[in-house]
Amino acid sequence: MSRGPAAYATLALLALAGVSACQPTDTNGGNGGSATVTESSSTGKSDSKPKAAIVPAFTGMGLQSAQDKAQAAGFYVLKSHDALGRDRMQILDRDWKVCSQNVKAGTSEPVDAELDFGAVKVDETCPAKDQSAPSAVGGSMPNLKGKSVKAARDALDSSTSITTNDASGNSRFILVESNWQVCSQQPAAGAKLTGQPVTLDAVKFDETCP
């Protein structure tokens, strides 16, 4: 069957219409080009520097109340220690009060800063200055007199053989070592530590050394 010129013209128009319909939509006014992706003005980097806050005053507060106040201010890295140097653990925070703080009140600090409270039991008197724990620096025997038996033990190498005696002569067992104070020691303070055994004579803190 032969087709006239009009038929061929119609077919040509339909073909062109089909090609045009298959072209991708150009959102940028071009002829079928790829659309340009607009980059965000944000670099994707976040400010990793922690925000700062003002450190409150904690001295004189109960330890639990001080910790609650610190957290309310945004500080969550909290520690406490025995301000009397007896190396006691603050197990029941409500039984302790704050004598000192390692960061001065009113100071602006990052909220991830560590706050350390020096504390004593609520019925005890705060020392004028935190009592430091003894230390066997330089391999010499520290002066342990007046220190708790627990602090004395912690100051020595863990391999040290330590004998503890009731200095009152009542032959009591020294169970809670943080409640006992050293009256005398052997070897003497300043002696070279060579792995020799150590002997500590002690009484309770509310008692007087003989």
Low-confidence stretches: 7-22, 24-42
Strand content: 15-25%
Give the overall silhouette. elongated
Q: Give Rg in angstroms.
A: 38 Å
Per DSSP E runs of 2 or more residues, the count of β-strands stands at 8
Percent helix: 10-25%
Biggest beta sheet summary: 3 strands, mixed
For the biggest β-sheet, the strand order reads: 2-5-3
Terminal CA distance reads: 134 Å
Note the run of SSEs as H and E.
HEHEEEEHEEE
Helix/strand-derived category reads alpha/beta
User: What is the tally of helical segments?
Assistant: 3
User: What's the rounded overall pLDDT mean?
Assistant: 85
Can you summarize this structure?
The chain is 17% helix and 20% strand. The chain has 210 residues and is an alpha/beta fold. The strands form 3 sheets. It has a 3-stranded mixed sheet, covered by helices on one side. A 3-stranded mixed sheet has the order 6-8-7, covered by helices on one side.
Task: Explain what the structure shows.
- The chain is elongated.
- Residues about 5-20 and about 25-40 have low confidence and may be disordered.
- It has about 210 residues and is of the alpha/beta class.
- The longest helix has 18 residues, at about 5-20.
- The chain has a three-stranded mixed beta sheet with strand order 2-5-3, covered by helices on one side.
- It is built from three helices and eight strands.
